[in-house]
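User: Please predict the structure of the protein below. I'd like the answer in structure-token form so I can feed it into my own downstream comparison script.

Assistant: Understood. Taking the following sequence of 175 residues as input:
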Amino acid sequence: MRIVLEQKDITVLAIESSCDETAAAVVVNGRKVLSNIIASQIDIHKLYGGVVPEIASRKHIEKINQVIDEALTEAGKTLDDMDAVCVTYGPGLVGALLVGVGAAKAISYAADKPLVGVHHIEGHICANYIEHPDLEPPFLCMMMSGGNTQIILVKDYNTFEVLGKTKDDAIGEAF
């Protein structure tokens, strides 16, 4: 006798606030994006020639609930439909991260859903699975994000090896 187990889709609310964008998305199985809402602060920070952490944090506070509500609405989902709440916990601007983590913790607690912390750099690596649904480890990844520029060997879904990185953020900031 052969037993076939049916796998359940995993749907998560993902929240990101590590720098100057407040973002929320609803994602199924880590590969299918049902919604992706981003509130950018680029125009505000242009006035100062770069991101001002205190301003970024305050703008996250203003936008976080709106962005989360829009992500759920666009996906046609409610918090009851979520299997977990995911949030960027670092690296990033401390005040900005606290806004996202605080919101995620509150939602997780109120909705009785697991809270999953996501490392910012690992999030960038895993974004490749959304863009390239057939992608599977191992592969080589060039990661550029603000102050982080690295060449990473992705050995498995949770195993990464940094092969090289810059001493400053020149390449990441250029992009």
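That's the full token string. The two ends are 56 Å apart (CA to CA).
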